[in-house]
Amino acid sequence: MTTSLASPVPPHAAGRTLLDWLASRFTYHDATAWGAELLAGRVRRNGAVAAADDRLQAGDRIAYTPAPPPPQPDLRLPILHDDADLVAVDKPPHLAAHRDGAFGRNVLLPELERRLGAASALQLVHRLDRETSGVLLLARHAAAVRAVQQQFASGQVGKRYVALVRGRVRDDAFVIDAPIGPAGGAIAHQRAVLPAAARHARPARTDGRVLERFAAHTLVELTPHTGRTHQLRVHLAHLGHPIEGDVLYGEPADRYRAFTAHLKAGGDPRWPGQRPAGRHLLHAQRLSLRHPRTGAELVLEAAPPPDFTATALLG
Length: 315
Known about the structure:
Blueprint: E1 5-8, H1 18-25, H2 31-39, E2 43-45, E3 48-49, E4 61-64, E5 79-82, E6 86-91, H3 108-116, E7 123-124, E8 133-139, H4 142-153, E9 158-166, E10 173-177, E11 180-182, E12 191-193, E13 205-213, E14 217-224, H5 231-239, H6 247-250, H7 253-264, E15 282-290, E16 297-301, H8 307-313
Parallel strand pairs: 8-15
Antiparallel strand pairs: 1-4, 2-3, 2-4, 5-6, 6-8, 7-8, 9-14, 9-15, 10-13, 11-12, 13-14, 15-16
């Protein structure tokens, strides 16, 4: 793995020990973890292996190369539908749909093309966040992409999700009709509920109903009638019941920044010890549409994975 941290020591850090500076400056590891990385020889100072008690000087070059990740196991990737036009899979969590930023490994498209044969040039018809599990639809050619995306744009595609949210939702059924747009903070891709008259606000509606209440969580079924970025995550946080494990919409911004720093350092995206389920618990359970060639109704379903119930029963 290539070096993921290369930083000069600023003047105000001169005289501090390397361990103290690393633990306070790069908080994706605590002092104990940084100590282990130093003992393993993964941190260098000015090109030489560094020690925890090294006293820093302004301008020192600190480089950190994390251990290579363990080999990825063969991915569980059940195929729900496969014909000359469309492929649908039950996407597991922690699997990015395409190569993006910190998620260059464990990517769905190349793995699925490998399984279906080198001649299969697949294109995503819609997207699911990396941590979201469930039904994901792909097309084998551009005409199928256009036909299905037109159905998405015109609201003809039926979508149903389930989510495990924090707290006990009061009403058995609810509607969240609240515009969504950029949050406007330091995290560029974060969205928020905005006043309808706000410049970048776009209408967004989600219908929901309670499936089961637990001691500290509620399992809800969700039907989005629009397709805004992060719509379900934003709407549930706005309701006061963020999705369990959602670092972006259910935690303070500094915790999210620590999470992204952890990823950039090559850390496990599940962030062990930080989230009970290791991900946000959102699952695309059902997708229904008209087949682009035959016009027949195509219904695709995938049951939620067991981490939903396991997390709920933890309280």
